[in-house]
Write a structure and sequence with these properties.
Helix 4 (91-102) packs across helix 5 (107-119) and helix 6 (125-138) packs across helix 8. The protein is 40% helix and 16% strand. It has 2 domains: 15-54 and 145-305, HAD superfamily/HAD-like (Rossmann fold); 58-138, no CATH class. The model has no long low-confidence stretch (mean pLDDT 92). It is an alpha/beta fold. It starts with 14 loop residues before the first helix and ends in a 14-residue tail after the last helix. The protein contains 12 helices and 7 strands. The chain has helices at 15-28, 58-73, 83-87, 91-102, 107-119, 125-138, 154-165, 178-189, 228-237, 252-257, 286-295, 302-305; strands spanning 41-44, 169-177, 196-208, 211-222, 243-246, 266-271, 298-301.
Amino acid sequence: MTKMTRPLDLWNDSATRTSILEFVAAVSQPGTDYVPPEQRVAVFDNDGTLWCEKPLPIQLDFTIRRFAELAEAQPELRTRQPYQAAYDNDLHWLGAAMVKHYHGDDGDLQLLMQAVTSAFYDRTVDEYDADVREFFAAATHPTLNRSYLDCGYAPMVQLLRYLEANGFTCYIASGGDRDFMRPIAERLYNVPPERVIGSALGLTYREENGSSDLVYKAAMDFFDDGPEKPVRIWSRIGRRPILAVGNSNGDLPMLAFSHVEGRPSLRLLINHDDADREFSDVTGAEEALAAASAHGWTTVSMKNDWAAVFSEPQVSDPA
C-alpha cells in the first residue's frame, strides 16, 4: 500500500496551512469559487519571501563587492557613498538604505541606484549572467554559515510546487534585479527566466566585430517596488494574480492588486519572527503587518507556521 504524502508537510498544522489548502481546493475544484487554470496566477516577492535578505539582500552583497573593487582601483571613490560603505564593509549603512526606502526615504537608495548603473555599465547580459553564477558558486551568507544557494526557504519552495500541481502558474515579482535572479531562480525555485519579473537596468543592442550583444546602459529602466510592482505584473502577465506573497511595505500594492471584488484571492505576508532559525526583525514591514491585520490577509509566522526554514545544504554547480 502506497503511503500518502501530507500536503505542505514543511508547514505546521496551523490555521495558516489550513487557509492555503482550503483556498487552493476552492479555486481548483468545481464549485462557486472555481477559477480556470489560465487565471490561477500566483506572484511571489523574492527578498525576504523566497530567500533570506538579512542582514542585507543577497544582491546587495553581490553589488557591494563590485563597488569595493571600483573603490580599490579609484581611491577618490573611497569617501563617497555607497563606495565608502562597500570599501569599509559598513553593512549598517547599506542595510539602513533599504530600511529607509521602506519608510519612504529614498535619499540613500538613490545613491545606491546611481552607483549600480555605473558599476555595470557596458557589461553584456552574458557577462553579467556569468558574474552572477560565479558569485553564487562561492559566496556564503555572512551569519548563517551556509551557501547563498542554500538560503532559499524550503516551505516556500514546497508551496510553489504545490500550487503548480494544482494548476497555478507562479511568477517572481521582486524589487531585486531581474537579471540577477534569472540565472539562479530555476536552480533554487524551478521558476524559469521568463517568469521572473524585477527591476532592470536599461539595455541597448550592439553589433561589433561580427558579434551581437545586449549591453547595459548607465541608467535604470525601472525599479520594481511599491506601486511599480502591479504595473510590471500587468505588463508582463496581462492578468491580475489571485494569490500574492510578500514580506515588506514595498509589497503592499502587489498584495492589494491581487484582489477583485467577487473573485477569490489569497494574500500571504511572511513575518520574520524566528530569531533561532533565521532572524526576528520586522523593520520595513510595519505598514504591511498593520494592513494584513486590518484587511484580514494571512500572516505567515516563520516561527509557528514553518516546520523548517531551510533545506539541508547541497553541493552542486549553480550553472
